[in-house]
């Protein structure tokens, strides 16, 4: 496209800051462009509007006349326009992750990104490849998190965000911000979690409305505010999440956005209420999360049962805690490839430990220890440092 405008390869190479020989390699398919900055430099050097190269609006484009990729269109055409192969890949990885955990899927997602998505980022036909790359990079981040590698997960989320912005898909951008908020909470950084939740809400307001995504963002905002000790604001955010999800049309969905349903909201509500010290209410929501969760969501069910058992312990209801603990150990397959579940099992054991003198608790702890040892053997390949870098 650029050569048809009469722009020499020498001028293009000089504008981008690469050797002319390297540019020929890119044009002939011998090398792949792996840096978004190259496209940005081309756009800025020759004043090509960002949307023509799958980028966000450039700083020099007039704001009043800048094309909006999603703000003036309905959600249905946006979904219809995505390529089926990319959506099918995201769905396949998403379903497998729910059932088996992300530990052993991480390498498969990274390989798919490198071999099937990254090469298409040099095709200047639109934002589809950037959206697929952003969605899969975010998914790789979640799988890294599930493998206990939060620094790698953070790097994936950081890389996914500019890809989402380049695609022009504001809902995808907001979804990645929600994931970043979750990861910040796991790291104990409530201020960053609040920031990311608000960033996501701001992005979600700029495009087609995806109610389930907005509900998720309000729920993450509530959790972050509760962790920061801002209980009144957290309660308001929880109320907003419930109202938004309650009024959400059943059929409105988005191919790149993580599903968020009543079970997920109940789980997030339980976490927020626990941090606000409202343990009895937290127990009720944690029980809802277990009851509402689909049987195929093995990891979510395991994490919800762990949370419920821990809340019962905090309330002093040992019999109820042991009952949930037995359900947990019986129902959770030992082959579930989730380091995060194993870590939470260890934390649950620590919560029970002060009551070890109680015979049923002592027996449960012995069984829990045996289960954890078996899981460590089965997850040895995941627990071993792999030293991988994000795509």
Automatic annotation (TrEMBL):
It comes from the Bacteria. InterPro entries: Cro/C1-type_HTH, Lambda_DNA-bd_dom_sf, TPR-like_helical_dom_sf. This is Helix-turn-helix domain-containing protein. It comes from Streptomyces yaanensis.
């Amino acid at each position: 496209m650029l050569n048809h405008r009469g722009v020499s390869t020498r001028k293009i190479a000089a504008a981008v800051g690469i050797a002319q020989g390297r540019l020929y390699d890119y044009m002939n398919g011998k090398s792949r462009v792996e840096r978004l900055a190259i496209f940005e430099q081309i756009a800025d050097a020759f004043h090509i509007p960002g949307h023509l190269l799958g980028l966000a609006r450039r700083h020099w484009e007039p704001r009043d006349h800048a094309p909006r990729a999603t703000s003036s269109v309905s959600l249905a055409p946006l979904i219809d326009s995505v390529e089926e192969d990319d959506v099918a890949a995201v769905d396949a990885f998403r379903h497998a992750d729910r059932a088996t955990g992300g530990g052993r899927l991480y390498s498969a997602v990274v390989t798919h990104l490198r071999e099937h998505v990254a090469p298409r980022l040099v095709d200047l036909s639109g934002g589809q490849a950037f959206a697929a790359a952003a969605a899969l990079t975010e998914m790789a981040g979640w799988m890294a998190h599930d493998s206990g590698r939060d620094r790698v997960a953070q790097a994936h989320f950081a890389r996914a965000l500019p890809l989402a912005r380049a695609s022009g898909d504001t809902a995808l951008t907001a979804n990645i911000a929600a994931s970043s908020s979750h990861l910040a909470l796991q790291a104990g950084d409530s201020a960053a979690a609040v920031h990311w939740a608000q960033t996501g809400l701001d992005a979600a307001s700029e495009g087609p409305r995806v109610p389930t995504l907005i509900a998720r963002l309000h729920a993450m905002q509530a959790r972050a505010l509760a962790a920061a000790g801002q209980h009144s604001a957290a309660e308001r955010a929880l109320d907003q999440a419930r109202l938004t999800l309650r009024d959400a049309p059943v059929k409105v969905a988005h191919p790149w956005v993580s599903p968020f349903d009543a079970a997920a909201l109940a789980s997030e509500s339980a976490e927020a209420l626990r941090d606000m010290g409202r343990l009895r209410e937290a127990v009720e929501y944690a029980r809802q999360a277990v009851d509402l969760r689909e049987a195929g969501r093995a990891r979510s069910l395991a994490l919800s049962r762990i949370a419920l058992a821990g809340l019962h312990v905090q309330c002093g209801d040992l019999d109820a805690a042991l009952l949930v603990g037995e359900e947990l150990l019986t129902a959770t397959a030992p082959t579930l490839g989730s380091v995060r579940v194993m870590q939470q099992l260890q934390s649950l054991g620590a919560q029970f430990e002060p009551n070890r003198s109680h015979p049923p608790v002592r027996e449960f702890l012995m069984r829990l220890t045996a289960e954890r040892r078996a899981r460590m053997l089965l997850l040895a390949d995941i627990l071993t440092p792999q030293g991988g870098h994000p795509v």
